[in-house]
Write a structure and sequence with these properties.
Largest sheet: none
Order of helices and strands: HHHHHHHHHHHHHHHHHHHHHHH
Distance between the termini: 65 Å
Number of strands: 0
Shape: elongated
């Protein structure tokens, strides 16, 4: 049955619910004064304008004109929110399945919701580390965004693609996309909020640790300067309670309440999500060799505190401790660097990946700085790197960097044969194969 109120009431209610201004709803096609006249009941939108407004408000034209909300739409809205909660606070595999179910069930009338479900599925694939499939999904969505900008925004897709290409080893493509995203953000003066923080983290991640300063890092500095890395308040119990209440409400056929509760659960987790992304940007910034020591020390410490507080961030906590240890080494404080690296090793000794090897490399560097024997740490770093599986993609830049650093340290300790072997491993990890047994390896590999 039709809802109470006028078309203007529904336009205003939906706009406020989605936290849009009249100018944002008007977009490039209408004026905000015209939207104001519709909301006040002084103008009735034409069918063309009604369809346009409905797309932007995320509802059907039928509901906007007549107040009728198809059950399928609200069920889809609820499914999207529960899938989002699963992605953020549950299992990304389950989240991908739920987003896929929404895509299969949605009809043409819900094209915008379908697009958002496909975006969620792509993010779920990324969260699982299935980067090849994630890249394919994001690329398709980006092409669709170019054809239908009313359904999907290009900027978050470009940022996500840059991040995925970087982690998959295609650094050139990652940097091109990051530059494109930065151009959009600068044009719109976006320096705060989720997209700005995601972009800042991506821009600094695609920079090489030994590269010089660059103009795009000014943007990262502005975002970090505006937001800092605040302390995390653990609201996981509240999120889980609201999520369960939403599930219960949905089971009781109270879909509208279930949607509201799910929204509350998502918003309860927003601060922690943004803080963790800021911590990632801060950690990558601290790793840059060109970052001023005082600034790098402060940001590395803030990142470590954030990851220490957040549940499920053990590996990143370890990585931040190592980043902080490297800053201390740069500043000549080998003793404190050793303490931080030891804490990282205690934390991640059984976590898959290069983190434990990196901790050993830092400890070997500390040993050399203190005129101690680094042999034990070098051997254990070598063993840790040897256990890594070959990546699905052709290269593993992080492993390559670790092997190169191990080679450097072998060289400093006088172990020339091990140095050459480590450099060969660095080339292999970077995707390079040589059939020449006696080839001389350049120590400058894969910075």
């Amino acid at each position: 049955m039709p809802s109470q109120g006028t078309i203007g009431d529904r336009v205003r209610g939906l706009r406020l619910n989605r936290r849009m201004s009249q100018a944002q709803l008007a977009g490039p096609d209408l004026s905000d004064s015209y939207v104001s006249l519709i909301e006040s009941g002084k103008r009735t939108p034409t069918p063309v304008v009604a369809r346009l407004l409905a797309e932007r408000l995320g509802c059907t034209t039928e509901f906007l004109l007549h107040g009728i909300e198809p059950r399928q739409r609200i069920d889809t809205e609820l499914g999207l929110r529960h899938a989002e909660l699963e992605l953020q606070h549950g299992d990304p595999v389950v989240a991908a399945d739920r987003f896929t179910e929404i895509v299969k069930a949605a009809d043409e009338e819900n094209a915008m919701l379908t697009a958002h479900a496909r975006f969620g599925r792509a993010r779920s694939l990324e969260a699982q580390g299935r980067l090849g499939q994630a890249v394919e999904a994001f690329e398709r969505l980006r092409r669709e965004a170019a054809a239908h900008p009313e359904r999907l925004a290009d900027l978050p897709l470009t940022i996500a693609l840059s991040r995925c290409y970087q982690r998959a080893g295609d650094r050139l493509r990652a940097r091109d996309l990051a530059a494109n995203a930065l151009e959009q953000a600068e044009r719109l003066d976006i320096t705060q909020g989720e997209m700005a923080i995601d972009l800042a983290a991506t821009l600094v991640e695609v920079r090489g640790e030994r590269e010089g300063d660059a103009p795009e890092l000014d943007y990262v500095r502005r975002v970090l300067g505006a937001s800092g890395v605040p302390d995390i308040v653990d609201r996981s119990a509240e999120i889980q309670s609201l999520w369960q209440a939403s599930v219960t409400a949905a089971a009781g056929e109270d879909s509208a309440l279930a949607v509201r509760l799910a929204d509350d659960a998502i918003m309860a987790g927003r601060h922690a999500r943004l803080t963790l992304q800021l911590a990632r940007a801060a950690m990558h910034w601290a790793r840059l060799g060109t970052a001023p020591l005082g600034e790098a020390d402060k940001l590395a410490d803030a990142a470590t505190r954030a990851f220490a507080t957040a549940s499920g961030s053990t590996q990143e906590h370890g990585e931040s401790l190592i980043a902080h240890a490297r800053v201390k080494l740069r500043g000549g404080d080998a003793v404190r660097a050793g303490e931080l690296a030891t804490s990282a090793l205690d934390l991640v000794h059984d976590v898959p990946g290069t983190t434990s090897a990196e901790a050993r490399l830092v400890l070997a560097t500390v040993a050399l700085a203190l005129d101690a024997d680094p042999a034990s740490h070098l051997r254990k770093a070598h063993e840790a790197l040897d256990t890594l599986n070959r990546p699905v993609f052709g290269s593993d830049r992080q492993a390559a960097r670790c092997w190169r650093e191990l080679g450097d340290l072998y060289g400093r300790s006088g172990a020339k044969a091990q140095q050459t072997a480590a450099y060969r491993k660095a080339l292999e990890a970077a995707g390079v194969r040589s059939a020449l047994a006696g080839v001389k390896i350049d120590a400058s590999v894969s910075h």
